[in-house]
Write a structure and sequence with these properties.
About 25% of the residues lie in helices and about 35% in strands. The protein is an alpha+beta fold and about 160 residues long. The protein has a single domain (about 15-164), classed as SecB-like (Bacterial Protein-export protein SecB). It has a four-stranded antiparallel beta sheet. Helix 2 packs across helix 3.
Amino acid sequence: MTDLSNGGAVPGAETRKQVVINAQYVKDLSFENPRAPQSLLQQQQPDANPELRLSVDVKGATLAPEVYEVVLNIKAETVLNGDVIFVAELAYGAVVSLVNTPQEEIPQALMVETPRQLFPFVRNILAEVTRDGGFQPLLINPIDFAEVYRRRIAEQQGTDPANA
């Protein structure tokens, strides 16, 4: 039975840390297929083994007290025999509220937890756009955003990310 004496609220919910995603959106999306239609024919050759170059970045900005914008930027570039086959770039944003989050935990919540929650949507968009571009869907493996964050901090401090 639910205790309605406190308005039906969950006990302790008012002090529990929360990452609330208020809105998600494509901020920028680009797909380039510079060698089409040759690149589409070339990928069907049995010895075609393209190299995938992937870069990931996360940025955060304050919009209001306890409200932030987080943008997950991913660039995927496929190269075969020195030629660019396709380039997909996505900046995927979210408006996030951090409720009851101590000041020292805000960077971790914005740069690790929020992109972790956004990643499935980003992965789907990139899979669809590469498929729509005539290629096999690009299915990006899960990303360790804690490691991305550690590397960024190490770079800012001028230390070796492997030792951070």
